[in-house]
Structures are given as structure tokens and as C-alpha cells.
């Protein structure tokens, strides 16, 4: 049973993605255009940003995604429905092939592989540390292949030239992944390319993240402590690891259409669930500052703020009561995390 600290609902904060805050169609189209090419100042997460300590922390917070209203169970159900005819009919003698991109510590690849033992599952991620965690999660499963790869280039799975029909995938899944590559449209184009005709994309992205608004306040406290003026703080770009990068209404659907998915095949379904930061103080602060870790490291290394991590931790715990509830076991819980489940089909 969660006990509210205080009423945090009155807090109003803008989205943590000012660069993606365009509201008119024209603005959004320009934004879509800008997403289609790599940006000089990189709007993608650095490849190493999910390695090491972040991989371990992410695995702890991601347990929340098993929530009945969370993404993983929904993705399993949609995937089962998408492959049902082929599993039943033996897919013309070939195994059903499922590709999980940005698998992180192994979901939803793990749940799907257990539900569909007849299928061949590929669990892939750009982070070696994440893939190692996925291997542990699925160590008892024999139907998984693992690959460390960047989803912007899937040529190691399906060659660009002369790919055999059987190398393509019946389903591509990707939970909370397309927000992170530098070139998000290129990643979607690669997904389209490796899907077989009639294949299905099952993916999720964040729509609302109160957690990011809190992180923005924590980052503001840190930058203030480093000597930055409020004006400079307000003009800071979102962090490169920005889970809200696809939250602009309508943006992801237009991206899907842009790479070839027909509007009539696209379904979008929103849902929300709580994230549990555990009851351990170190883990709580680690998760709370995970997305700004690279920036904190930079402030320490540059000598601008040698105690950046301590300032961030202090700010996190001071601000937590405004944003989070406390469970009876001491766990910190944040409500109102809203995501979108997007499903799209390539024409047969
Ligand atoms: C938020 S986690 C999602 C993990 C998992 N699917 C889940 O639902 O918990 C995002 C993952 O995307 C991966 N990632 C980031 N950029 C990537 C890229 N360019 N190609 C492949 N994976 C990438 C990260 O390493 C990380 O494991």
C-alpha cells in the first residue's frame, strides 16, 4: 500500500524535451525532418551510456515493466496474435523468427520466447553489459540467439543486398528503444527492411514521464551549484539519453508512415503504470540520477563541480516527496508513467 508524501499533482512542469516540444503540424514536420538525419551535436545516447552501473540500475527499475498495465505483457499478447497463423501452420516449414531490438536486460524477448518455444528469438542490444544480463535471464532457453548491434544497422542480421526471404523476421519487438539511437528514422527504416512482407512491428515509447520532470529539477540544482545562472539552466538541451524523445503527439505515427507502414495498419494504445525505485537508498538515488549520470561525470571530470553526484543525490531525496509516494516497505514509487504501445504491419 503506497502512502502519499504530499500532493505533487499541483506541480506543473513542461516536458523535458524542449527540442521536441513543437506543437503545430508544420513544426512537427520540421522536427520529423531533423530526426531523419544524424545531428552534429548528437541527439542519441552514447553507446556506452547503458553500460556498467547504468545497466545494473536499469535492470532494477525495469522490473516495474512486468506490471499488468505495463508494456511487456501487452507486447507478448500482440506478438502471440501476430504469429499465431504461422506457428499453427508451421510457417511454410520454416521457424517463426522474432527480433527483439534494444532488449536491455532481456525483455520482452524472455517472456515471448517462453510463450512461443517454437519460435527462433534474437535478443539484441548495442550495450554488451545489457546483453550479458539478458543471457543470464534466459540462460535456460535454447531458442535464443544474442547479438550486440546498433539498431541503425541490421545488415549483420539481414544483408542489405541479396537477403534470402527466410532471413527476414515475422515480428520485430522493441520496448523503449527507438528514442535512443542518434538517427531514429534510420532505425525504423532498418526495422521495415528486415521485416518480411506481412510482418509486424510491436513497440513502445514513453508519452508522459513525471520522473523526467523531477530529473530536470535535480539537474537544475546541480547546475546552479556549479555556478550557472537560471537563464543558462533554462536554455540547457535535454540530455542525450532522453526517453521522452518520441513523446510529441503524432510524431511516432508519422515516422512509421514515413518508413512505409500504412496508416490503416497502425494502432496506438496508451496505458500507465507506476515505477518502483526499490527500498534501497543507494539504488533509489542511482535510478533517480541515472539519466544525468554522464553529465554529472562530466562536471566532476572537468573540475566544475567535484561533488556533482552528492549534490544530485541530496536534491533527489529533498525533492522526492513532491513527486513520489512511499510504500510500506520504504520503496519509492512514482505514478503516472504513461507509454504508448504501437503496432504496425508491413503489407504482405
Ligand atoms: C530503456 S532500455 C529498454 C530495454 C528493454 N527493452 C526494456 O524494455 O526494459 C533501452 C535500451 O536501448 C539500448 N540502445 C540504445 N541505443 C541503441 C541502439 N542504437 N541500438 C540498439 N540498442 C540501443 C540500450 O542499450 C538499452 O538497453
UniProtKB/TrEMBL annotation:
<dbReference type="Pfam" id="PF13649">
    <property type="entry name" value="Methyltransf_25"/>
</dbReference>
<dbReference type="InterPro" id="IPR041698">
    <property type="entry name" value="Methyltransf_25"/>
</dbReference>
<dbReference type="InterPro" id="IPR029063">
    <property type="entry name" value="SAM-dependent_MTases_sf"/>
</dbReference>
<dbReference type="GO" id="GO:0008168">
    <property type="term" value="F:methyltransferase activity"/>
</dbReference>
<protein>
    <recommendedName>
        <fullName>Methyltransferase domain-containing protein</fullName>
    </recommendedName>
</protein>
<feature type="domain" description="Methyltransferase">
    <location>
        <begin position="98"/>
        <end position="199"/>
    </location>
</feature>
Amino acid at each position: 500500500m503506497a502512502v502519499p508524501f504530499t500532493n505533487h499533482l499541483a506541480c506543473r512542469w513542461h516536458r523535458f524535451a524542449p527540442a521536441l516540444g513543437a506543437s503545430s503540424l508544420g513544426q512537427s514536420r520540421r522536427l520529423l525532418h531533423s530526426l531523419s538525419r544524424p545531428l552534429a551535436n548528437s541527439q542519441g545516447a552514447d553507446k556506452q551510456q547503458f553500460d556498467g552501473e547504468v545497466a545494473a540500475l536499469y535492470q532494477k527499475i525495469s522490473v516495474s515493466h512486468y506490471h499488468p498495465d505495463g508494456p511487456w505483457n501487452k507486447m507478448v499478447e500482440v506478438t502471440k496474435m501476430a504469429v499465431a497463423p504461422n506457428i499453427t501452420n508451421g510457417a511454410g516449414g520454416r521457424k517463426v523468427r522474432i527480433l527483439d531490438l534494444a532488449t536491455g536486460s532481456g525483455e520482452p524477448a524472455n517472456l515471448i520466447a517462453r510463450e512461443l518455444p517454437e519460435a527462433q528469438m534474437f535478443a539484441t542490444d548495442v550495450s554488451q553489459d545489457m546483453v550479458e544480463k539478458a543471457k543470464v535471464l534466459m540462460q535456460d532457453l535454447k531458442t535464443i540467439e544474442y547479438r550486440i548491434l546498433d539498431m541503425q544497422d541490421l545488415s549483420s542480421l539481414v544483408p542489405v543486398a541479396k537477403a534470402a526471404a527466410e532471413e527476414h523476421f515475422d515480428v520485430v519487438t522493441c520496448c523503449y528503444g527507438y528514442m535512443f539511437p542518434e538517427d531514429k528514422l534510420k532505425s525504423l527504416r532498418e526495422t521495415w527492411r528486415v521485416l518480411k512482407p506481412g510482418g509486424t512491428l510491436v513497440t513502445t515509447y514513453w508519452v508522459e514521464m513525471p520522473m523526467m520532470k523531477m530529473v530536470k529539477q535535480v539537474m537544475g540544482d546541480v547546475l546552479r551549484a556549479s555556478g550557472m545562472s537560471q537563464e543558462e539552466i533554462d536554455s540547457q538541451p535535454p540530455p542525450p539519453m532522453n526517453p521522452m524523445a518520441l513523446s510529441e503527439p503524432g510524431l511516432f505515427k508519422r515516422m512509421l508512415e514515413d518508413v512505409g507502414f500504412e496508416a490503416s495498419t497502425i494502432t496506438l494504445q496508451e496505458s500507465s503504470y507506476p515505477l518502483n525505485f526499490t527500498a534501497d537508498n543507494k539504488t533509489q538515488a542511482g535510478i533517480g540520477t541515472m539519466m544525468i549520470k554522464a553529465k554529472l561525470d562530466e562536471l566532476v571530470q572537468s573540475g566544475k563541480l567535484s561533488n556533482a553526484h552528492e549534490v544530485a543525490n541530496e536534491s533527489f531525496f529533498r525533492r522526492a516527496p513532491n513527486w513520489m509516494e512511499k510504500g510500506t516497505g520504504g520503496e519509492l514509487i512514482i505514478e503516472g508513467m504513461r507509454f504508448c504501445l504501437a503496432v504496425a504491419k508491413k503489407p504482405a
